[in-house]
């Protein structure tokens, strides 16, 4: 690496500007980024501004212009060849799936374009998808420019500030990009799981009904169906419901282990643990006896079990106000039993924490039960309150949840109770755990509203929490 830097510094500055600009533009314009992401080039440009080979201002302007030009060409290519793709091999996808993809991109809109700029491979493909989906170029250009300015500016400035540590920073940033892709894939999996749960609010019965279509199960049912019926009658509906809920909780526990396993891989390969000592030293240098005592008091009061009890009380009050509910797993954990997923999460965190064994082998997930449960509890409280409130109250609830989550996480870091990597893993686990149920509830409400509109087209759309739900 040192020899390469020495050779590059000997080149004329104009050539360096030109080659770097071509690489940054080609990352999206000619899909070059699928092979070599552009962060390394921008970090190198930042390093060359540090040692005086290039000037910082012109370098920033040149790289921003190149990235915008490359994205614009990719957008035009998607606009021009997108219909041909749909009419060719894309016709196998079907118009319904294309329509859902267009609706999803329209719903995310510019926010998706902005976020894609920070993720390798995604920033190469998203401009083409936006052009093919018919997104207005003015809308694309504004959000894309915001993403380009922040991404290019941040990467070049990081290379400039890193100075002689450029090689280390480049390696860590490359690992962080891979972890970001892994987390995005995990988030997609969480959302899909939530949507499936929303469409199948009684997941055990849904899985059993699908299993019933398998030949061995059909044979057993045909042969011993009457015996199964008599056993079910003997157990009774109450015990059947309890067994069904218990099996559903086992499924949730398995989902929690899967999410924790994903975070284990992400944290182990992110390089975030390299910052643990620096973050701990920064907080230790600012710790005073009086502030530490006050912080310890707050942390002692706002603990996982306290928040679980608070969630149970809030859920009970809201369930009493909206009394009817369905006898399925999603209704239970989304109303009076909202505290139950938190208990499952606590068990998952204990199993996969520092004293447990991470799924898939390797080191255990460096997270704490307290941070995971606190994060999930704050998110659950905000979700419960915002479902039955107007938007100003909902915004206030989520703002308070975010402030509480950051405050408790920062307080535990300040006291030296947790590491930075462990806090990040625990908070992500708690948030992703809550996202599953938020997506599931929204999916079921949307499905129920669509059914109501299908039965009575003149009836206004359902309002989710305002809709009376008939008990089963």
From TrEMBL:
Residues 36-160 form the VTT domain. Keywords: Cell membrane, Membrane, Transmembrane, Transmembrane helix. The keyword Transmembrane helix applies. Pfam families: VTT_dom. The keyword Transmembrane applies. One of its GO terms (cellular component) is plasma membrane. It is found in: Cell membrane. The chain crosses the membrane at residues 12-36, 56-77, 140-161, 173-197, 242-267, 296-320, 327-349, 369-386, 393-415, 421-442. It is a multi-pass membrane protein. InterPro entries: DedA-like, PAP2/HPO_sf, VTT_dom. Residues 449-472 are annotated as: Disordered. Belongs to the DedA family. This is Phospholipid phosphatase. It comes from Micromonospora arborensis.
